[in-house]
Amino acid sequence: MYSLLILGIVSFFCSLILTPLCRNAFRRLGMVDRPDGQRKLHQNPIPRMGGVPIVAAYLAAYGLLLLSPLKAGDLIARNLHQVLALLPAAALIFAVGLADDLFGLRPWQKLVGQVGASLLAYWA
Fold it and tell me: Which positions of the chain have pLDDT values less than 70?
């Protein structure tokens, strides 16, 4: 029980710290979504690639859990092969989102990537 609470707290604080850092970095690098008056109705340019700090926080939280002496860390370590089997599916979902942010994928392209990731997860 405490392991899940600690996992949630660590993930929350990692996201809380990484999100503004990434937002500012992406603004400096010009990786923003600009309003176009039709589909994109926001007032100011907003940074893209919000999945980067979320994935980093996820990996940091699970890494810390693996290194901790808590029971959940031991449980994950014993079943690491199952976690690693799902990693390609998670990586594909992240890659599709990142590609969409960088290049603007069409809906059918995103759907193909997401269906592919679901098939990888099912196969795992």
Answer: 1
Rounded CA-CA distance 66/54 in Å is 18
User: Do you know the residue count of the chain?
Assistant: 124
pLDDT at 90: 94
Nearest by Cα to 20 from 65, 50, 62, 56: 50
Which 8-state DSSP code applies to residue 74?
A: H
> Structure tokens of 93?
């979902």
